[in-house]
Amino acid sequence: MTDVLGLFSSPAVSGAVSVERAVAELRAGRPVALLEGSVRQLVFPAENLDSASAAALEQLARGRANLILSAQRLRRLGVERTAPGLISMPKIDVERVGALLADEGASIDAPVAAPGAADEAALDLLRLATLLPGAIVAPLADPMPQLQEVNGCDVRSFRAKKVLSLHLIGRAPLPLEGAPNSEIAVFRGGEGLRDQAAVIVGKPDLSGPVQVRLHSACLTGDLFGSLKCDCGDQLRHTARFMAENGGGVILYLDQEGRGNGLANKVRAYSLQAQGYDTYDADEILGFGLDQRRFGYAARMLDLLGVTRVRLMTNNPAKIEALRAAGLDVTDQRIQGRPTPQNIHYLATKRDRAGHYLDVDLPPAGGG
To answer: What domains can you pick out in the chain, each with its CATH number?
Structure first.
């Protein structure tokens, strides 16, 4: 029994487990303790701050709390930075924190200090939890048994370990409209606690280049047919095209909202309704152009026996990511229908993120 328990408590396993537990705690609105060498630091997600938690955090922090924000959010607040920064919080004011975290009209109200390694690891934990990238952090003199502890080095190595631990759970037939000879394969792993799926359309020839699409989950477009994006169009067009042209593989990746999560995607939609483009809306919330990583997509393809890829995409970052993972990649351009609701979105992706999209904006004031 001792040997069996040792397997589950090995450093590699326990480190990843502590990160997953910390992610769950943060998503539930509870603080965690982050260790970085001899430094122990309390981390609390700023988006969950209310009067009760602010009072409790003040007692623990004893005037030494800070708010850490991403470089993108600080730029929106008027501080040009390439790295995150700390804002002193001798008193933890709920309204002040909320404004600094995500108010589109807010500006910086105090000096910004350079973060330590523990502070940056705290932001990475929030990204894994798909929370807004802002946290109340404060030093802890002693361990607190009631808080989940996580080591900063485990946070930094978490994604790479999850890629290596990715494994196939099962496969089953999945007839699709336009692609009836298909099956689904589910993989356990990826970032956080989420499973990933692959749809194998037809019987692709694995000895040659296989048509592949990396499709990030889009609840609004894929399921509800939103006209704000072209995601659903691309997904359905890809399945039909593969069915009619030798088969292929669609990797359906749980990376909603360019990796920001569904809640933050909806927050960004609210800002877009006020006139901001998709990337400005994300920056107001503290996010960069794209938080997605595609290392585990390459691992899924490896487990399916795919080594040569004809990637159906308009995103150059996906091509580069698969090549960096060692795959032989050529690309085939794909684009959904331009609509009056998504034409500016498509043009913004082309102009600001270099997507290969052929769209023409209507004349100003025109239809």
So the answer is: 2-157 (3.90.870.10), 166-255+292-353 (3.40.50.10990)
